[in-house]
Amino acid sequence: MCGTQMQMELLELASSLISFNTVTPPGNEEPCARFIKDYLDDLHIQGAEVDLHNFAKDRSNVVATFGGSSAGLLLAGHMDVVPVNDEGAWTSPPFQAKVREARLYGRGSADMKSGLAAMLAAISSAKGRRLKRTLSLVATAGEEVGYDGLIALVDDKGMKRVKARYGVVGEPTEMKVVRAHRGGISVRITFEGRSAHAGDPSLGINSIENCTLFMKHLDVLRKRLAKTKDPDLGHTIVTPTMINGGSKSNVIPGSCELTLDSRVIPEIGSKTVIDGLNSAIADLSSRDERFKARLEVLYQASALSVPREAEVVKITESLTGSRSAAAPYCTEAPIYSEQGTPTVVLGPGSVKQAHIVDEYAPVEQIERAEAVYRQMIEKLCL
Ligand SMILES: [Zn+2]
Q1: Fewer CB within 10 Å, N side or C side of the chain?
Q2: What is the pTM of this model?
Q3: What is the number of other CB atoms lying within 10 angstroms of the CB of residue 297?
Q4: In angstroms, what is the span from residue 7 Cα to ligand 1's centroid?
């Protein structure tokens, strides 16, 4: 097959994936998952087992394993995309991919359907060959809304068949190797007070003032957490991001909600942060019975920390000619790592392009991704 023909097939594959509206919520990934399954089934690769894992109505993950009896390579990515919001502002329709100026435009082109397409095209290189080690592909649903697809897959023991010593998640990294990122937590703290007329504040309990007391404790916790540093990721961050309290200008606010975002290094772990916040609340309530607050964890994602000397890091560094680094966002890679497969992040497109109007991935990077994944299959599975 000549180069141009291969390029066309790869871009057609990426465009087909983009044509499925997999915006989460609601997701609706099932038709996209079926398309991936059909594509992989049609390759008739030795020892292929391609399954859809349905975990909710119209929600499916794809789990595919090919040949080989010993642990090999896992290629992984997500099928869902973030909402379009401002469709009128797009130069071309977001779900009809278009190539302009050597860039592939469309919702999900960077995050991360081009990466998935490059993985699928690379897998086609195993067609008609004998695999020494298992090659696996996992395409997940619901990554953008808290990894609900992959969490369901792990809970249902759907990852059991996936035997891999090396893992790659194809999120957009401009084809540079990412082996570390902070974990993420989002929590909401509700301060419960008592409403009263502002003319006599002593009759009520001011929930906003209680929130302010908590903020002072938060500052102490942040300083304590900042003392532990990771060589790649720096220190743990806790940031108040939303506040909502009170109902009227002349009423003592009976309730106030504070939302915090935390980015956690592996040396600290999310439990330490949550415990720290809870003990600040406990401390304040023990000092004053008028202080009442409760904490809810809204979202939690693990940190990624694959050692620099891990084989998967060395292999991907040598294939891309890049030195591995840390990223400022969260991915599903820690979940695969927790399942026993050290997993790096490496894919086409830039995170700056993710989630925006006129999202694109450079065609050259999509092609490079396919070449790198193909070389990995060659080296680790064939
Ligand atoms: Zn993504």
Answers
A1: N
A2: 0.89
A3: 12
A4: 23
User: Contact 365/98 with Cβ under 8 angstroms?
Assistant: no
How far does residue 314's CA lie from ligand 1's centre (Å)?
Answer: 23
Q: Are residues 56 and 194 in the same domain?
A: no
Q: How many whole angstroms from 154 Cα to the centroid of ligand 1?
A: 19
Compute the radius of gyration of the chain from its Cα atoms. Answer: 24
Cα-based angle 356, 362, 364 (whole degrees, multiple of 5): 165
Do 68 and 143 lie in one domain? The reply is yes
H helical segments located in 204-269: 207-225
Q: Do 55 and 154 form a contact (C-beta atoms < 8 A)?
A: no
Backbone dihedral angles phi then psi of residue 289, each to the nearest 5 degrees: -70, -15
Crossing angle of helices 114-123 and 363-380, in 10° steps, is 40
Residue 120 CA: distances (Å) to CA of 92, 213, 380: 25, 54, 16
Interval 296-347: pLDDT, tens: 999 899 999 999 999 999 999 999 999 999 998 899 999 999 999 999 999 9
- Token pair belonging to 262: 């935390």
The Cα–Cα gap between 127 and 134 comes to 14
